[in-house]
Each structure stands twice: as structure tokens, then as C-alpha cells.
Write a structure and sequence with these properties.
The protein has about 100 residues and is an alpha+beta fold. The protein is built from 2 helices and 4 strands, in the order H-E-E-E-E-H.
Length: about 100
């Protein structure tokens, strides 16, 4: 019985160490700070939702009083260039298999 309990304790310690290195905490600057707006907004370019403090909030670009929200700077510049976001409707989360030859 003693050996069984020791094995459980050793396994628990090894798993804790494994998970500590396998799944580390993100850096502190990724977390919201006091006063950050954590409301969920939708990106005006791609339509993905994320917290306001994680994106770019731009106010009143064309003098129309509208707020624009973007995931990142690439989406912001693409939106104002007039690009259209292309979604991949066939994507199922699995890697695609390409044929070895084009015949």
C-alpha cells in the first residue's frame, strides 16, 4: 500500500512539472489591466470577436462619428484599402492532402 501511494505522489509531481513546462502562463501584458475595457467587439474587417483591449479601436475616421474596431494593424490597413476578407468555407480544421502529381 505504501508503494502504491508513493507511486501516486511521484506521478502527480511529474505531471505537475510536465504541465508547467508544456502549458506555461502567457506573459502578464496579455492579461487585462485595471481599467481595460473587456467588452467583446466584432472586427470590422474579418468579423472575429475579441475583447476591446486586445484590438485596435479607431474613432471617427471619416467624420461620421463611427467607431471602427480591428483585430490587428493588418486588418485595419486592409479595411481602409478596400480589401474584402476572404473566408475559407471548406476549412474543416484538418490539414489538406495534396496529390503527389498533377496528372
Amino acid at each position: 500500500m505504501f508503494a502504491f501511494l508513493i507511486n501516486l505522489i511521484i506521478i502527480a509531481i511529474v505531471m505537475k512539472i510536465f504541465f508547467k513546462f508544456m502549458y506555461p502562463k502567457p506573459p502578464k501584458h496579455f492579461f487585462p489591466k485595471a481599467g481595460d475595457d473587456v467588452s467583446i467587439r466584432r472586427c470590422d474587417y474579418c468579423g472575429h470577436e475579441l475583447a476591446t483591449y486586445r484590438g485596435i479601436l479607431q474613432m471617427d475616421v471619416a467624420g461620421d462619428g463611427r467607431e471602427y474596431f480591428f483585430c490587428n494593424g493588418d486588418h485595419q490597413s486592409a479595411y481602409f484599402r478596400g480589401d474584402v476578407y476572404q473566408t475559407d468555407d471548406d476549412y474543416d480544421g484538418l490539414p489538406t492532402k495534396k496529390p503527389l502529381n498533377d496528372d
